[in-house]
Amino acid sequence: MMAIEDELLTEIQTTLGSSITPSLRRSDPSGIFEGYILSLILRAAVRMGARNPIQYEDVHGNAPTIFEFRTSPGYIASRARPYTHAIIEFPGKPVLEAHVGVLVEGESGVLHECDVAVLTREEAVRCRRESRLAWSGSPAIWVSPSTARIVLSVECKFYRRANLDIDLARSFLGLTSDMSSKCVKYFVASTSSNSVEVLLNSKGKSWYSNILPGAVGTEMLQGSFQKTFENFITSRKW
Description:
Number of helices: 6
Radius of gyration: 17 Å
Shape: globular
Structural class: alpha/beta
Number of domains: 1
Number of strands: 9
CATH topology: Trna Endonuclease, Chain: A, domain 1
Distance between the termini: 45 Å
CATH architecture: 3-Layer(aba) Sandwich
Strand content: 15-25%
């Protein structure tokens, strides 16, 4: 029987295509899970009419052969590695970028970690253009995306068997309270917890549990991503 990490990696590679290889390793299951959720988002975008195949770009603006994933949350303009994002293009709509592990700016001005985020390319370009690397004694200047320019964000939790701690749900509620109402916010986990689900449901939050290849909930999640993209396509607010 194939290990779950290998199943997720296979799904990621299938979605990305044969021309690009993910940098993920089996020793980082949480990172692999984030990559898997990204793959579901990209599939949903294609189903809703996005340009196919999806194009990929690194922080330098190059078309890479390796999809470099962040191993920890970082600035969208960081050049520590050739971090990669996907470009999502719907006809007649603002171009979007899909990123893993980026810091975003809440409405309070506080930075938050975003496991997976789909934002306007215009905002991502602005952040890369206005950020400055440290040089000649001058400190670096990092500009992070505003949550008002994020179409959807996902909080990803990977656990093999353990139930989710209720504090994870409380942390998610705190995060969403500081994010723009324009951003659709998802809580997605590989396992389940009744207390977490009851709390998030009572607060009207979008949550999905037991998300793994072949699971019923996974199809439902991808369908929800499709609905989010449908709303983006038909909305005038973007």
